[in-house]
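Q: Hi! Curious about what SnoaL-like domain-containing protein looks like structurally. Here's the sequence.
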Amino acid sequence: MYHSIVRSIVRTAFQTLSEGDKADLNSILKLFAPDARFSFSGEHALGGARQGHLSIRAWFERFQRIFPEIHFTVQRILVSGWLWNTLVNTFFTVQAQLPDGTLYQNEGLQVLRICWGKIKEDHLFEDISKLQNALRCLETHGVQEAGADPL
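A: Let's find out. The predicted structure is below.
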């Protein structure tokens, strides 16, 4: 039962992110522990590691500005462990229309560690070359933050 609840929460979070710049970030950020760690693989505008609510909020706000219309499809969610130490692996696809008319498509993996109902660690992995190509396209078409250094 507990694992089903965790899968539902994760699926809902990805659905919320699929609302793009209209997504309610507070509904996602309340899932994180105050000292949570969040990382996104690679050296690019969305890459790097951060810790704590303010830093994580800044990342999600940047994400919304860079990809105001994005769609996630959860492929599979694997949950193991108990309330005090739960491991979640989420396999997903993502797509967004780019300003040059091409479609950004990628596959990703999210690795979460949840303790007592709060995310303590969230690590995201995508094909970095595909993401970097999309970020370059966005920067070329006026989304300057897409070419910024990591937060």
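A: A fun detail: The chain is about 30% helix and 40% strand.
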